[in-house]
Amino acid sequence: MIKTYEDKIVPVYGPIDATGATVTSDIVSLKNYDHVTFIVEIGLCSATAATSTNLALKKGENVTTCATAMGKAVSFRYFINTTAQSGDTLSALTAFPIAGISIGHGNTYDFVGTGNALFVIEVDAADLEPTVANPYDTVRIGCIFAGQATLVSILAILSRGRYKSASMPTAITN
After folding, report:
1. Residue 123 is part of which domain span?
2. Which of 97, 93, 114, 109 is nearest to 44 (CA)?
3. CA-closest candidate to residue 29, choices 1, 61, 70
């Protein structure tokens, strides 16, 4: 099996220094795919940062607008690599709340000053809850790192494509 014949792999953000930045990925279209897996890698969070951030998903009807809150929770796994914990085992599948997850110093997922984090977020096209009136087929991920020294990279892997070939259809433009 050749992975790129089965799945579309798209770098949708970074890797860049996101210190004090609002991180917003490219808008990903699920028009030709049934599933997207976002892989968010966050590293080098400053130990002195006391601010938090919220990692959240938005949905939309086209590739230029994607600002509607998700209507249902999706699934995600995470891996936090700290000085006390290492390895390559992801957590159990967990519900990614509609409002997003709280990461940063003193929050639910606190890896500030101790290491790196990897979040794997699974979104099915059906999770966007499309209707005739609102045919949602796009999704993006975003967060804010206020004052934290942070490196961020986001990768999208689209799967269950409608058309499988050596050249999978684009997912970031219509």
Report:
1. 3-161
2. 114
3. 61
28-56: buried (b, 16+ CB within 10 Å) or exposed (e) per residue?
bbbbbbebbbbbbbbbebbeebebbbebb
User: Which residues lie closer than 8 Å to 43 by C-beta, 6 or more apart?
Assistant: 115, 116, 117, 150, 151, 152
Task: Look at residue 23 and tell me if it is in a domain.
Answer: yes
Residue 169 belongs to a domain: no
Q: pLDDT tens, 21-59? A: 788 899 999 988 999 999 988 876 655 554 556 788 999
Q: What is the pLDDT of residues 68-100, one digit of tens each?
A: 988 888 887 777 665 445 667 777 788 888 888
Q: Is residue 166 part of a domain?
A: no
Q: What are the CA-CA distances from residue 106 to residues 47, 81, 110 (Å)?
A: 11, 16, 6
d(CA 11, CA 13): 6
Assigned domain for 173 exists:
no
State how far the Cα of 14 lies from the Cα of 153, in Å rounded to an integer.
Answer: 5
Total tally of structural domains belonging to the chain? 1
* pTM listed for this prediction: 0.84
